[in-house]
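Input set for joint prediction.
Command: fold jointly, output tokens.
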Amino acid sequence: EIVLTQSPATLSLSPGERATLSCRASQSVSSYLAWYQQKPGQAPRLLIYDASNRATGIPARFSGSGSGTDFTLTISSLEPEDFAVYYCQQRSNREVTFGPGTKVDIK
Amino acid sequence: QVQLQESGPGLVKPSETLSLTCAVSGYSISSGYYWGWIRQPPGKGLEWIGSIYHSGSTYYNPSLKSRVTISVDTSKNQFSLKLSSVTAADTAVYYCARPFMVRGVIPTDAFDIWGQGTMVTVSS
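tokens >
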């Protein structure tokens, strides 16, 4: 089973600041990594698939990078609606795992 | 517009079997490459339960494998989850989901269409 580790657990920032979230896999997942945003009481929302491709309707301030075992989600300038929990996820050999999440909260 | 809707009992007794259904609308379940179930205990992160593929093959979280069954009913355009011998640790919001399809036809490894989720509490 591939284990995903996310850091930091919590990121305290102000609107307008840049957010950099990390996801590390216990073994290579090539570029098959996704990022989600989840707000309280809502289902997760897909932001990024295949490490760097924005899903439909996702604003350009969200970008993903990385391959192999190290990945990054960057929010270039935080909007008020971006304060949420972010999860990474991979699917390898048809088994799916999620990272534990990074909470981005208002400083 | 593709929509998923989970349904099932909100309360299940310990040691019994949790049964949920995910109704798919706006899309033929037979056209999907795979479908998934994911859960989230209160205040915790996301946990993949398992997936069922168009071939009928199923893949389960190793930690749940002995207790999980996922099946598809194409006549009703829905797929189902059964989790046996439940305990309080199985209390969670349960989601069904479909993968993102590039250009509407190429499945990816990411889930982009999710049901609203259904809360299941295990308690006597």
